[in-house]
Known about the structure:
alpha+beta; 5-stranded antiparallel sheet; single chain; two-stranded antiparallel sheet; 16% strand
Amino acid sequence: MKKEILDRIQQLGGNISKVKGLSSNNDILSITFDTVLYKRPIDTPWEKAEDSEPIYGISEFINENHELFKKDPKAFYDKIIEKYYRLTIEGYGQMFWEGQPFTPYKQGTEDYEEWNDEFIEDDIDLSEITKVTNETTPDFIYLFSSYGYPDNYYICLSDPNPENPTLFGTDHEVFFREVTNEGNLEDFLNIFMTKEELLEIVKKRIES
């Protein structure tokens, strides 16, 4: 796997200590996260639109802790990180690293037993995947989940560029009946904010 990808995963809070460098797919499966991921806002400046706050609800949290900010700014910023950068299912618009095999076409696996009947139906559409991999019955790695649309993201073990594979999105409501090409993994990882990048955005908002 590309060094730039591993570096970015580490910056985002991923644990890459078990990466051996023997294969990109094994490397990905060895990575773990004890935190969540947030996309960087890209619509309009936060100063002008609440909808573009970097994390859902953070404006209210900042207002509730205004006295702490005046008293102890470092404690205030630490509290922001403690609240948002942890594994929580409370919805803040976060995404989750999954890093699990998904093998609906591979006989002998639990995924095959559970999913193969559905994956041989006519309405399954893997055309976006086949364009990239030339594979009609691929094995996947389930890489990210989210509260948005699509809410599931996968890469293929047969990707022709395993060092920087293509990410595919699908939603539970149209599971693999609609699939989108989300670009390569390196670019996708760069849409997320590190803890430090979030604090820079917050500081610009409240200290300007």
